Amino acid sequence: DAGVTQSPTHLIKTRGQQVTLRCSPKSGHDTVSWYQQALGQGPQFIFQYYEEEERQRGNFPDRFSGHQFPNYSSELNVNALLLGDSALYLCASSLRFFHEQFFGPGTRLTVL
Amino acid sequence: EDQVTQSPEALRLQEGESSSLNCSYTVSGLRGLFWYRQDPGKGPEFLFTLYSAGEEKEKERLKATLTKKESFLHITAPKPEDSATYLCAVQARGGSEKLVFGKGTKLTVNP
What pLDDT does A1 receive? Predict the structure, then answer.
């Protein structure tokens, strides 16, 4: 049973560029949440997708956007990258109305 | 605003030396409290969910407990492989499914 997968593992971008991160949820899960984790901090909630719609959003600017596909996989897009966007981006999947969220290995984004 | 505070920030133990990690929380109606383990550069690994005060859960050398204001993660006779950052998160009632995390406790177990 495959767990949550994310790609790519690492990514290096320069300021002002755009990036797309991808996530495939755990088999049987239909909900995907994205989190940003800065070094030495706990993960911060970005947004959650269910039934291909954004259901809830944390305190992140509109530069952060996402998408969920019919197969429940998801993308996170970040436009106009800033140095402060450097972080580990985590995808978590869950089954709607069940509480446990299972995390993928993350994508390490470095903005130069 | 929902908030989670974990203490201590870092903890060093000798192998076999039992201890506890603390997670204090304020939330507008608790749906669940979650404990995760995170190894460096990797995603958090789910450990436990606790739903109501007085609940306890165990897994190998770990035992999690919950009161109305805090949760404890007790580590009994730890081994070096228990070294990791332990994260606590809360989920509030009311339709929101987001997890609010603390900053974690970095545990180091020396042989």
Answer: 66
